[in-house]
Amino acid sequence: MTGDEVEKILESAKDIFRQQGSYIGKVNAERVLFIGDTHGAVNVTDVAKYYYDKVDLMVFLGDYVDRQPPNGIENLLTVLNLLVNDGGRKVIVLRGNHESPLTNYYYGFYREVKEKLGEGYYPKFVDLFSLMPVSVTVNGYFCTHGGLPGLYNSNGEMELGIYSEDDLYGLPKGDIIPDDPILFQLLWNDPNSAIDYFSLNKRGEGVFYFGRKVTEDFLVRTNFKGVIRAHETADGFKVDHNGRVITVFSSIYHKQRAGLLFLNNVGEFSRLYISQDGSAQIVQGLY
Q: How far is CA 135 from CA 26, 54, 253, 281, in A?
């Protein structure tokens, strides 16, 4: 694919992203497929593509580049082509923490772009990433890459940073790093079933673990059913906070299985596991 062809796809995808807020809002669909971190695993993304005509909505939860041997551009363009050809009707592409120069400048994507397309193309990808939406609510499940955010109150204690769904609609677009603390934590935070509230996260400054009571508070305030996210390596899936927080991990660089999560029209989940050798297995339920 030539540089001009790549740029055409990026511009078409940006046109769709510009029409979406950081929070897309509520979407309902009968058959939904959720895809977590793929990190250059084009073979897994191709499996997801296979289901395009078999589901009513596809939700990509971020992290398309870095980590995998250098297929980040190909993997990202596969996702963006799906989005552009669909016109954004039944494909949602969310931003992950690796869709930022804070990470992808150092974890392989910058070098890949420089070698394959030329250094001048990297800012075009950075601009694209800054326009991506960060969250959406699908069939009552809040979907984002990382996790629930917190803010310090006047007593120096951290509390949930989202008081209602209206707060999500007010989040900014075009934030490159992002520097907004709520946006940043939506991309970076992780659940922890051993705590109730917030604690510092080993990932670094400004990143936190959120506990069981944080999730409970968020679901009560918003009247959502649960949280579907990605971001953490897992053997396909991980479930926290009594089934209220579901992690989907769709890459295979970590030498475990990739996972794709299905949600049907009666609210039942099923899990598709993709092994290192390409074999697949579908399991009903979350456990």
A: 10, 23, 25, 28
Alpha helices in the chain (DSSP H): 3-18, 42-50, 72-86, 101-104, 109-116, 122-131, 165-169, 181-188, 212-222
Long-range contacts of 243-246 (CB under 8 A, 24+ apart): 243/286, 244/215, 244/216, 244/219, 245/147, 245/191, 245/215, 246/141, 246/286
51 has which bridge partners? none
CB of 107 within 8 A of CB of 66?
Answer: yes
Closest CA to 132 of 233, 16, 217: 16
Give the position of tokens 């050809």. 85
98 is catalytic: yes
- In the block, tokens 């001009």 appear at 4
- pTM, 2 dp: 0.97
- The C-alpha angle 145, 115, 91, rounded to 5 degrees, equals 30
pLDDT tens digit sequence for 87-132: 999 999 999 999 999 999 999 999 999 999 999 999 999 999 999 9
pLDDT recorded at residue 287: 83
- Summarised one tens digit per residue, pLDDT across range 76-87 is 999 999 999 999
Mean pLDDT (whole number) for 149-160? 95
Confidence of residue 69 (pLDDT cuts 50, 70, 90): confident
From 39, 98, 231, 241, active-site residue: 98
